Amino acid sequence: MTVTVYHNPSCGTARSVLELVRNAGIEPEVIQYLKTPPTLAELEALVRQGPATAHDLLRTKEKLCAELGLDQPGVTDAAILQAIAANPVLLNRPVVVSPKGVKACRPADTVLSLLP
Question: Which domain of life, per UniProt (predicted)?
C-alpha cells in the first residue's frame, strides 16, 4: 500500500500520524510541504480523490487564513486551493493520501481509517 504524508516535522500531530503509519508496517512517502509545497494541480487532485474537501485541507487556525478572508462564508474551493498553493503554511497538517482516500488527519487517529 502506498501512503503519502504531507508532513511538518515541528507539528506533534504530524509526528504522531507518521508513527501510526509506520506502526502499521508502512513506510510512507513523506513530503515536507513547507520545503516542497504542493502545486495547485496537486491540491486539486487531492480534493478529487476525496473525501477531503478544499475546506478540510485549509488550516483555519493559521492567522493568515483570517487575514486573507478565507474563513468567511462563500469562499470558493478554488480560492482556498489557490491560497494554499501560494501559502503552504495554510495546508492543514498532516494530510495523508492512501488508496482509501485523502484526509487531514486531526486528531492523529483519523489516519487509521486510511490504513489496512
Answer: Bacteria
- Residues marked as catalytic: 11
C-alpha–C-alpha distance, residues 18 and 49, integer Å: 21
Q: Evaluate whether the domain defined by 4-114 bears CATH number 3.40.30.10.
A: yes
Phi-psi region of 78 (alpha: psi -120 to 50; beta: other; left: phi over 0): alpha
Q: For residue 55, what are the contacts with CB-CB under 8 A and spacing of at least 6?
A: 77, 80
CA distance 73 to 27: 39
- pTM, entire model: 0.93
Using CA atoms, how far apart are residues 104 and 51, in angstroms rounded to an integer? 10
